[in-house]
Amino acid sequence: MPIRTVRMCTECDEPHEDEHGTRFFGVPAWMICLAACVAMPIALLAYTYTSR
Question: pTM of the prediction?
């Protein structure tokens, strides 16, 4: 899994530290964590509903 903390600048073509945090496959880590925090309760509620 490529983990990047350095990105290429589109203006000067030089590598810079990524100001948006660590990225996994180009997606910011905070967005993946947010999606997981939203999806987990939904998945648990769906599992509870279907197991009754």
Answer: 0.51
